[in-house]
Amino acid sequence: MTGHNAPDDEMEAVLLAAARRAIAYRTAPPAHQRAAASYADCVAAFDDALPDEGMAAPDVLAALVARAEPGLHAATGPRFFGWVIGNSHPVGVAADWLTAAWGQNTANHVAAPAAAAAETVAARWLLEVLRLPAECSVGFVTGATMASFVALAAARGEVLRRAGWDVEALGLFGAPPVRVLIGEEAHASVFSALQYLGFGKASLIRVPTDAQGVMQPDAFADLLAREVPEGAPLIVVTQAGHIHSGATDAHERIVPLAQARAGWVHVDGAFGLWARACPTRASLAAGVEGADSWATDGHKWLQTPFDCGYAIVRDAGAHRRAMTIAASYLPPVSEHERDPSHYVPELSRRARGFASWALLRHFGRKGIAAMVERHCAQARLLADLLAAEPGITVLNEVVLNQVAVRFGGASAGAPEGVQGDALTRATIAAVQEEGTCFAAGASWRGGWILRLSVIGFSTTDDDIRLSAQAIIDAWRRVASAAGAL
Q: Quick one: 254 and 323 in the same domain?
């Protein structure tokens, strides 16, 4: 089959073949949670000479599967805790298949009316689930990095507009300086988003954090008073869900302080914002609703396929001023219409609203709440099982779905810290090599940790117990070899 004139039976055959291969992978994922092939192995596997003649479609699919599957992590499996990513729920995957097959470019509501309508309704449902103000606008982007970029672009434009400067028309040269306050342990993606928008990393005012990585409100108040002149354009970046601890900044204190100075508060809530969807966890994000913008991911707790994130902005006008792409050939928007391209930096993009709508419809309000609660309880169970083993220390207060673990001693200071780093890194390697579960390491507050993120829809309590035992066994092997037991 080549080209658009392929017979219908050939087209159906190749699509069914792809579906069968996808279903086979999802119903029997690899037992080993780590990819069997390295990046170098995968490059060697894919690296053929560019052919002069095309290959038949069935052979292309077979070649793709043979080369790709050895290099796939079991990210859709029940014991994958390496990063804060969901399992790509089958309902979302099915909707995403249809999205690709339908081939709709969600540039505007005329070019793709169904895709635009799905976004309109999914945006409303999303605000209801997260209990954010109904007047907010929502941009459907690739993930939380671009969500923060979009929201902070709106913030930049609005705080400069209040200072008498039109950044969309005049740019940044000659603009009044914008002060940006941000926690020193904010996620790397937010620092990058600010950099893309012209805020140099060295110019940011970094607020000290406590042992859980959240901003200290008193330090924030002090820096606000000392470093930000009265009337200066101000942006404050907070977080809901620290990447290691899961903790959330004290928004009930920070938001009023910032807004008393006419500041714009943006919340990086890539996964922690979803605590608001769960009545038993909503208090963790108390005060978040008072902010001006929020970034969150669909491919975390909503379990959408990649790529899916949401830029949520209270001031829809500021959002549109920062993002609208206008041209004579693009259709105008009437009062009751929503043009998707007015809220994101892309004119050509996939229809992310279909999978978002499908999963919000599938789970419903109660289903999302139950899943968040279950994952938080499973993280607590995992932490308790690990902490009961001598030599294993859980460093964070497990309030959400994150567990930060250190082996061989909690201290990051020398000499214990040096040994603890070595033992922790060796245990991480042993866990990944054994393969019952997958978890990754990170450096936090001067020492190495194993970070576990419980967020896959398919994870059961039995998976948690099995994974805990595998981690404990790995630690025992490492400790015994090092003479640490």
A: yes
* pLDDT at residue 439 greater than cutoff 90: yes
CB burial string 443-471: b at 16+ within 10 A, e below? ebeebbbbbbbbbbbbbeeebbeebbebb
Tens-digit pLDDT profile for residues 286-306 = 999 999 999 999 999 999 999
pLDDT at 472 over 70: yes
Question: 364: part of which helix (H) or strand (E)?
Answer: helix 352-387
CATH assignment at residue 450: 3.90.1150.10
412 located within any domain = yes
315, 340, 360 - which closes a domain: 360
Global pTM reads: 0.94
Indicate the number of domains in the chain.
Answer: 3
Alpha carbon dihedral 353, 358, 363, 366, in 10-degree steps, equals: 50
Picking from 310, 328, 360, the residue at the C-terminal end of a domain is 360
Once rounded to an integer, what is the mean pLDDT over residues 456-477? 97
